[in-house]
């Protein structure tokens, strides 16, 4: 894949920065405000102003693979619901089992992102973000701005319409009346999450209100806004398992009480609890283990084509990626090739059960940055919204795709 403009021209830092800041300003005006991320005591460039030119055939293949992967996940969810004892393998707190195994009203997840590696050796899904996927604002807003800057068509143009369709489906599945309010929440300090919530809320067709997560009042009988309005429907861009740790200022376990209200159906959340069930990376080892038992021939073919062998224990693997089952943003991941550690993160999630996935090398991709051309590893995110492939999300970074891997827009040819 090639950037849309030439990397052979001499690099002029001041000129580049001036042009980049102009693009950043346009994207921020439309709701994408984190083109720069402050981390490790410095500003880091998160948005590249390069535009990748992706072969249409690859974009179609990712779309087909996303549909196939989502079908396999849906089937896996149905199989777990038939044999509920399997939940003990997923590394999720026992406290949440009853909640996660409650019969859902619709899809296991309405907002999902599958992450793919595309190389000369094919296309592989390496994980699924089924609970609280982000990258939606980049794929909708920043992508549109960058395509306009480069005078190219935006292949993600249908994303907003698919979000609207998802809301209409959720309104039906959850039986949200026209007089009901859907509250939207996330950690208020987190710009990316807040703008993502704002973007989704703007596309919701009925009554909606934002309430910061920190201000939600968890009472003995229900959940309320600070103004005393009862919350019955809540979109939360906050991992469900994190609620277990939430305490009030006086040390009360309000997160546990929140989950009890969910179990007692005093509250309904989007994504549904089943989205956390399917977020566990142990799902990937389960899919591989049960591929000859649970799935149709077509699903088996999709698993062998698009999924990597993944196991609950290391066995005799020499090249693998070790992942915590409920890790996020690349935390706790270790990449090993031929017995040598290529990269690892030991700061997070080390206490969790791990899965071991066959190592599949990521392709190199060069993009423009403040510091000149940068060559990193390319990862393709694919949003599946209400079961429909809804646009791609490209990032370039290290062997572990973390918080600071750079977003880069794309067009097709």
From TrEMBL:
Keyword terms: ATP-binding, Ligase, Magnesium, Metal-binding, Nucleotide-binding
Membrane-crossing segments per the record: none
InterPro entries: GSPS_pre-ATP-grasp-like_dom, PreATP-grasp_dom_sf
Superkingdom, natural source: Bacteria
Sequence ranges assigned to domain Glutathionylspermidine synthase pre-ATP-grasp-like in this UniProt record: 24-409
GO molecular function: ATP binding; ligase activity; metal ion binding
The protein's name: Glutathionylspermidine synthase pre-ATP-grasp-like domain-containing protein
